[in-house]
Design brief:
Elements: E1 3-7, E2 11-17, E3 32-38, H1 40-52, E4 58-65, H2 68-79, E5 87-90, E6 96-102, E7 108-113, H3 122-131, E8 135-140, H4 146-158, E9 162-165, E10 183-184, H5 188-195, H6 202-213, E11 219-223, E12 229-233, E13 236-240, H7 253-266, H8 271-286, H9 298-307
Parallel strand pairs: 1-4, 1-8, 2-6, 4-5, 8-9, 9-10, 10-11
Antiparallel strand pairs: 2-3, 6-7, 11-12, 12-13
Amino acid sequence: MKDVIVLGGLNMDLIVETPRLAGPGETAEGSRFYTTPGGKGGNQAVAAARLAESPGTVKMVGRIGDDGFGEEMAQFMRSEGIDTSLLRPKAGIASGIAVIFILPDGENHVNPVYGANGLCDEQQSDDVTGALVNAGVLLCQQEVPLTATRASIEAAAKAGVAVILDPAPVRDVPDGFYDSVTILTPNQGEASSMAGIEVIDSTSAKSAARKIRDTGIVTVIVTLGDQGAWVESDGVSELLDPFKVNVVATVAAGDAFNGGLGTGLASGMDLLEAARLGMAAGAVCVSRDGAQEAMPSRAEAEALLRGR
């Protein structure tokens, strides 16, 4: 098992379960409120750590504030066996938060305030570069400043380390930003935006993945929720069927997928094996509450895979 390096955001998730969203000027009473450590980077790190079952193998690179939320998130990651020595606190700034509204069907609406995440800079890209020595994969997203992310991606590619990028949240990226990405993992909305094709099923996902791949990215995996995932790469063009689970909340499903995909590749799996591990991780995640707390153990993911 090689190291999994994660560069990305950490947010304390403030979750409201509600029968419906309030309209302009309206108050709509929710049914439940709770907090849980989140952020796309943090979620992917916890997913990878639980699936890797090898303390210290997953290394988190990023920033938190010097507030209670920051320390709580860092402590949770340490309790999961994640190396947080490169998770740097920033004095006088709040940690990132995300207000998440969850509807009865499990769908979620997210409003983040990135706080300290927005101050990631060359310190973080230097930290990533230094951590690549024993790395098998670098996991990135688009929550932290793109300059730091791009420098990290390029350093990983130069070192021969696979780069998995979740292009979320959707941002206008500079020319060449994806040139060194090994695997891009957009969801339906992100794939639609990037390809200019409305992605509603496996056929449109295939078209979008091929169009995105034409930009030079080696592999594109379009995640389709309860429809599975379309994998488009050299010699691979197929739909991976979903696992059937009772959906409680879709928060962090994509992060669970990327964490599983990255862990699989770092442990020597081929692309499709690693993608199936990611799908199993995502299926377990959506079957329960929370973000990082909802990430599956290796045993839980493997139980789903054996059932398949």
